[in-house]
């Protein structure tokens, strides 16, 4: 018997169909072990020796693999054809060797597509494990561990509120923060454009003023309204005739097939997918055998695939759409990762695959790959110059016409910032023609700051700088979101205060390690290891020799000294010069105090030097007193019964109201559904009056109370809860409505927890049990009625598909320990079940995660070293 090991059960099921009865295929469910998240897992003093630990939830699967391996004559490691796949195979081999279950014959096979032909061909060409790729994996894993577990503790102790730092994560964050600074420091500049609406032969077109009074007009030439109106008057007064018609042929070649990076970018632009969602869907398409491997820097396609693409083009279009010779592409990446083929369909005869997001992403991959072998598009660009009678003023109209669409008939690449001025059609005009002038306009404009990064543009920028590798971008960006260093609004990254502060700290004290050149250079060295051109311990030693002393030096400094240095470093941002020349650090409340950066338990903030006499504060990240800053306590008015002042304040947990002082003071949080601008004295009085007793329950005679809690407005009766929809409902709900809501909550499953499904996904493809998405105490989960599987943080209930849910349930069922409580079960079973209920890890998770500070008053928490 021959045992084949792959990563996922879906892949195992597909491959087993292609192989004969002598083969048994098992899944490892991703990585089976990792460096324990504790000090000492990597020993720099002992040649960077690593102590690996099996994942607690993989015990059952590892036992199954070991049992089968003991009976096998040959072990075939068929994990993915990249560095991570090589690492999983190596880990499986090492674990089996330790268990003395390793067959005498061990082979490694790789295939770029899960098709019968590709798998059969790979089985006929086995090889040994690639030691260079394994060394590269160990180097990256050790490096990411050392950075995370050395630098993150410095952050925790010297920068309150910081969560983690990582090799690529911190540099990606720096890009987002620097863009935020550019936007804040940007000064808009006014400019005007003058254009005329013209008509010839019944067709309208627009011509812009490009020369005025004999002088060339650039974008910012006309900077005042008076000049714009004068130019407009001159155009209105002039009679313009065509002076020159210039036509140039243009050729546009199709883009190459997708790489990992370009797929993430285009899916973000055209489909609105996050990088992590794109990679998850692509992984499933690959495992279903519909596309080739999706982690690649290569743009080339196999010769047989090119032939199949050309045949599909010939079948779909006429001969003009097929170039005479096949197109050959070469990657521009400095170190193309393992020289894989581009992402393409496994069969060009299949133009559709899957449903929902799977179908949309497959369609994108199919069209891009097919278009890459199509004929070039032929266009014609026309420029028309029209001059007035004096020869002093010139209008210009531009446009282009598609003569032959070529590949554009199927696919056109998206852009982050499109400008289609040149794509407008123009009427036929000849020299001497005098088009009719319908109207002239002068429009005011202002220069715009650079746009915030989208996922597509940030991935593109990281790739341009040579930072990280495309296979890690999705997890890198996810770490930034999970750490709350950034937020995403309308598909754009905004730097949060915590992210800005961490970046400032790293720029000031670890500038070298967040510099773009250093990070890119380190990536090159790691690629040299995978190519056999460098020794992995030597690369780590060179890095560690400088990095360790630097972290020790910063660790010795007092937090107050760190804050003082950051205050100086951030002065241009936090306290920019004022237009009137006054002191930007002067306290706006007391007048004679000086503002400076302070550190507290919950992060950094700006405070007055006259504290506690002056209690002025504002949030970090509100530079120079811009709109929205906290200007200190605000008296809303006096309570109508007590006569005491009700004051609006800002605390570490957000805005709140307070009445009274000291221990006797009464406070209340300002609800999120009640913006600060709508907080009136009446509302403040209402909030301070909580909790509100609605009345006595007609059946129990016990009180029903309405109040605001940690999770929002609620009803409470006899220890049971019911939800309210808004803060306003707390003061409006009556007895009848309250009784109904409490009864509905009780019928939904006790403990006040709602039991209605968030989403019905359909029948499980194997068991046919109905799969639902439910809201649980610790977040959403999927269930088939027997097995519950928590949704990863990267997956939202709305985006979850039936296939994804089924895989989560199957993975959880496969890793679950034996159930307790069976009458005849031996005692050891219960103990084993308890042991196996360890920390859960995503079966296919890669290592781009950040170290997170352990929570207080808990059992020793497992933290993960940052590798992002």
TrEMBL record:
Role description: Releases the supercoiling and torsional tension of DNA, which is introduced during the DNA replication and transcription, by transiently cleaving and rejoining one strand of the DNA duplex. Introduces a single-strand break via transesterification at a target site in duplex DNA. The scissile phosphodiester is attacked by the catalytic tyrosine of the enzyme, resulting in the formation of a DNA-(5'-phosphotyrosyl)-enzyme intermediate and the expulsion of a 3'-OH DNA strand. The free DNA strand then undergoes passage around the unbroken strand, thus removing DNA supercoils.
Compositionally biased spans, kind Basic and acidic residues: 833-851
Chain spans, region Interaction with DNA: 164-169
Reactions mediated catalytically: ATP-independent breakage of single-stranded DNA, followed by passage and rejoining
Keyword Transcription applies: no
Name of the protein this chain belongs to: DNA topoisomerase 1
UniProt subunit comment: Monomer.
Gene3D superfamilies recorded: 3.40.50.140, Bacterial Topoisomerase I, domain 1, Topoisomerase I, domain 2, Topoisomerase I, domain 3, Topoisomerase I, domain 4
Gene coding for it: topA
Entry keyword set: DNA-binding, Isomerase, Magnesium, Metal-binding, Topoisomerase, Zinc, Zinc-finger
CDD domains: TOP1Ac, TOPRIM_TopoIA_TopoI
HAMAP family hit by this protein: Topoisom_1_prok
Residues covered by the Toprim domain: 1-114
Chain segments carrying region Disordered: 414-451, 622-650, 811-868
Record organism: Sphingobium naphthae
Domain of life, source organism: Bacteria
Entry's family note: Belongs to the type IA topoisomerase family.
Active site (record annotation): 293 (o-(5'-phospho-dna)-tyrosine intermediate)
Top-rank EC class of the record's enzyme: isomerase
GO molecular function annotation: DNA topoisomerase type I (single strand cut, ATP-independent) activity
Record bears the keyword Magnesium: yes
Residues in Topo IA-type catalytic domain copies: 130-551
């Amino acid at each position: 018997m021959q045992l084949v090991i792959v990563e996922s059960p879906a892949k195992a099921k597909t491959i087993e169909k292609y192989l004969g009865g002598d083969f048994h295929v098992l899944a490892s469910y991703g990585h089976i072990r990792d460096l324990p998240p504790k000090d000492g897992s990597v020993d720099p003093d002992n040649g960077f020796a690593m102590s690996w630990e099996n994942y607690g939830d993989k015990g059952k699967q590892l036992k199954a693999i070991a049992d089968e391996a003991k009976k096998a004559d040959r072990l075939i490691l068929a994990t993915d054809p990249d560095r991570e796949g090589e690492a999983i195979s190596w880990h499986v081999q090492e674990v089996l060797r330790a268990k003395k279950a390793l067959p005498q014959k061990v082979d490694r096979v790789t295939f770029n597509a899960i098709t019968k032909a590709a798998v059969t061909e790979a089985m006929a060409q086995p090889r040994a494990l690639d030691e260079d790729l394994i060394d590269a994996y160990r180097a990256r894993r050790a490096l990411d561990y050392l950075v995370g577990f050395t630098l993150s503790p410095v952050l925790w102790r010297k920068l309150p509120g910081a969560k983690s730092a990582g090799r690529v994560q911190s540099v990606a964050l720096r890009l987002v923060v620097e863009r935020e600074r550019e936007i804040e420091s940007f000064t808009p500049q006014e400019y005007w454009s003058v254009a005329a609406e013209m008509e010839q032969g019944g067709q309208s077109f627009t011509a812009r003023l490009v020369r005025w009074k004999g002088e060339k007009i650039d974008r910012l030439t006309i900077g005042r309204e008076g000049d714009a109106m004068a130019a407009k008057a001159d155009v209105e007064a002039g009679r313009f005739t065509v002076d020159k018609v210039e036509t140039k042929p243009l050729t546009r070649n199709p883009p190459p097939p997708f790489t990992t990076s370009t797929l993430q970018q285009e899916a973000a632009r055209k489909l609105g997918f996050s990088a992590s969602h794109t990679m998850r869907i692509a992984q499933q398409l690959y495992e279903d055998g519909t596309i080739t491997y999706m982690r690649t820097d290569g743009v080339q396609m196999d010769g047989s695939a090119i032939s199949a693409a050309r045949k599909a083009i010939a079948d779909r279009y006429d001969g003009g759409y097929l170039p005479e010779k096949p197109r050959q592409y070469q990657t521009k990446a400095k170190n193309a990762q393992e020289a894989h083929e581009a992402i393409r369909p496994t069969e060009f005869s299949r133009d559709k695959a899957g449903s929902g997001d799977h179908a949309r992403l497959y369609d994108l991959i199919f069209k891009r790959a097919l278009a890459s072998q199509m004929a070039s598009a032929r266009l014609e660009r026309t420029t028309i110059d029209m001059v007035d009678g004096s020869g002093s003023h010139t209008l210009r109209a531009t446009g282009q016409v598609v003569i032959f669409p070529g590949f554009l008939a199927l696919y056109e690449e998206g852009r982050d910032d499109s400008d289609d001025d040149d794509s407008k059609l123009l009427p036929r005009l000849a020299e001497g023609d005098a088009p009719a002038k319908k109207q002239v306009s002068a429009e005011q404009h202002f220069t715009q700051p650079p746009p915030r990064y989208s996922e597509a543009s940030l991935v593109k920028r990281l790739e341009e700088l040579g930072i990280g590798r495309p296979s890690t971008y999705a997890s890198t960006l996810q770490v930034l979101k999970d750490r709350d260093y950034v937020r995403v609004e309308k598909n754009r990254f905004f730097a949060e205060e915590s992210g800005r502060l961490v970046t400032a700290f790293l720029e000031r004290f670890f500038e070298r390690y967040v510099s773009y050149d250093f990070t890119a250079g380190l990536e090159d060295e790691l690629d040299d290891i995978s190519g056999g051109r460098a020794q992995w311990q030597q690369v780590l030693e060179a890095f560690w020799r400088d990095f360790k002393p630097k972290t020790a030096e910063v660790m010795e400094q007092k937090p107050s000294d760190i804050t003082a240095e950051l205050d100086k470093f951030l002065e241009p941002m936090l306290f920019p010069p004022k237009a009137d020349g006054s002191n930007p650090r002067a306290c706006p409340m007391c007048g004679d105090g000086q503002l400076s950066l302070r550190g507290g338990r919950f992060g950094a903030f700006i405070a007055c030097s006259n504290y506690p006499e002056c209690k002025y504060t504002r949030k970090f990240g509100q530079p120079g007193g811009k709109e929205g800053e906290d200007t200190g306590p605000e008296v809303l008015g006096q309570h109508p019964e007590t006569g005491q002042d009700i004051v609006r304040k800002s605390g570490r947990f957000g805005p709140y109201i307070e009445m009274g002082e000291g221990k006797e003071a009464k406070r209340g949080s300002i609800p999120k559904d009640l913006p600060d601008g709508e907080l009136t004295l009446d509302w403040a009085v209402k909030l301070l009056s909580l909790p509100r007793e609605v009345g006595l329950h007609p059946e129990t005679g016990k009180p029903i109370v309405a109040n605001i809690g940690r999770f929002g407005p609620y009803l409470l009766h006899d220890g049971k809860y019911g939800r309210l929809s808004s803060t306003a409902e707390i003061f409006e709900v009556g007895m009848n409505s309250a009784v109904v809501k409490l009864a509905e909550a009780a019928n939904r499953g006790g403990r006040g927890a709602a039991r209605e499904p968030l989403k019905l996904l359909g029948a499980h493809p194997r068991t046919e049990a109905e799969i639902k998405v439910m809201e649980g105490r610790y977040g959403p989960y999927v269930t088939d009625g027997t097995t519950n599987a928590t949704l990863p943080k990267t997956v939202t209930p709305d985006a979850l598909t039936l296939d994804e849910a089924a895989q989560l349930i199957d993975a959880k069922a496969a890793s679950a320990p034996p159930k307790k409580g069976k009458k005849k079960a031996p005692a050891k079973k219960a103990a084993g079940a308890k042991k196996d209920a360890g920390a859960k890890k995503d079966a296919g998770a890669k290592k781009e995660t950040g170290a997170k500070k352990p929570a207080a008053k808990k059992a020793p928490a497992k933290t993960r070293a940052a590798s992002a």
